[in-house]
UniProtKB/TrEMBL annotation:
GO terms for biological process: DNA transposition. Residues 9-124 form the Transposase IS200-like domain. It holds the Pfam family Y1_Tnp. One of its GO terms (molecular function) is DNA binding. SUPFAM superfamilies: Transposase IS200-like. Residues 227-236 have a biased composition (Basic and acidic residues). Residues 216-236 are annotated as: Disordered. This is Transposase. Gene3D superfamilies: Transposase IS200-like. It comes from Ramlibacter ginsenosidimutans. Transmembrane segments: none annotated.
């Protein structure tokens, strides 16, 4: 079966995961983490991609981002991936691939899953046993969102601004969200949808996405495919 193209639609938040080959480490030290963040910042700006959140783990990383164009995220990820691997291999005197194939991504319904996705990402280091408090982990956007540092890479999504009328109120509200955690069902849904490339959201959201692309946005049901109502062949 032919591999489906990635689902990428401008103006919608995308959850992105890039893993290291065979789950091996993709960072050897602080300089590598800083290099990757700088490359993401550089190419997100070039490709008009707003990065809302990130977390860099030892053998993979997550991004939450909204592109202005259909090619924005693919071009950003291609440029970042190639330049990072070239620099990493040079520093480590190694050759060959670093990534586990192409990155995984999907669209998520902002109103339902955007803040949950941010919480899911910020709690990754805690779930992995790397820290007890996400504020102790330096390689995520969490510290930006609780007001402890300003991160040039981050463009907050409008839903974040709705958490409070002042920066302090938003910082406190977001910190409370992360302390409350994420439901297991949401965590599993976010992971599964991103790895499989299916859109994640309520039926109306999914239907709206499907009208905007020829690519299937969710897994089809068994049986004969349903014909789109705007199919030209249906017009008499």
């Amino acid at each position: 079966m032919a591999r489906l193209p990635r689902l990428t639609i401008p103006g919608y938040p995308h959850h992105i995961i890039q893993r290291g080959n065979n789950r091996q480490p993709i960072f050897s030290g602080t300089a590598d983490y800083e290099l990757l963040l700088n490359l993401i910042d550089e190419h997100a700006r070039k490709q008009q991609v707003a990065v809302h959140a990130y977390v860099l783990m030892s053998n993979h990383f997550h991004l939450l981002a909204t592109p202005e164009t259909a090619d924005g995220i693919p071009q950003m990820m291609q440029a970042v991936g190639r330049r990072y691997v070239r620099n990493y291999n040079l520093r480590q005197a190694r050759t060959g691939t670093l990534w586990e194939g192409r990155y995984r991504s999907t669209l998520i319904q902002a109103e339902r899953y955007l803040l949950a996705c941010m919480v899911y990402m910020d709690l990754n280091p805690v779930r992995a046993g790397m820290v007890a408090d996400p504020a102790d982990y330096p390689w995520s956007s969490y510290l930006h969102y609780i007001g402890r540092r300003t991160d040039k890479l981050i463009t907050p999504h409008p839903l974040y601004w709705e958490l409070g009328n002042t920066p302090f109120a938003r910082d406190v509200a977001y910190g409370s969200l992360v302390r409350a955690g994420i439901r297991e069902t949401d965590k599993l849904a976010l992971t599964d949808a991103t790895l499989r490339g299916w859109a994640l959201g309520e039926p109306d959201y999914v239907a709206d996405l499907q009208r905007r692309t020829q690519r299937r946005v969710v897994k089809g049901q068994a049986g004969r495919p349903v014909r789109r109502t705007d199919d030209p062949s249906l017009i008499k």
